[in-house]
Write a structure and sequence with these properties.
This protein is mainly β. A hairpin with a 4-residue loop joins strand 3 and strand 4. It has no helices and four strands. It has one domain. The strands form two sheets. Strands 1-2 form a two-stranded antiparallel ribbon. It has a two-stranded antiparallel ribbon with strand order 3-4.
């Protein structure tokens, strides 16, 4: 199980790119990074998480 996040420069206050990763894999196990293009959602749509659903937030 791992958590990964990225914030591109257009989304950070000082224009920095932030990439964070937390993982419990073995030290030499490879990590595959994929890019998932953004999608447009209606304001009534919900994000399906592992155990809950939350409303989309328009930024």
């Amino acid at each position: 199980m791992c958590d990964t996040l990225v914030a591109l420069k257009s989304w950070t206050k000082n224009g920095a790119v932030i990439f964070g990763k937390n993982s419990d894999r073995e030290k030499d196990e490879p990590h595959v990074i994929i890019r998932v293009p953004r999608k447009k959602h209606s304001k009534d749509e919900k994000v399906k998480c592992t155990y809950i659903e939350i409303p989309h937030k328009k930024l």
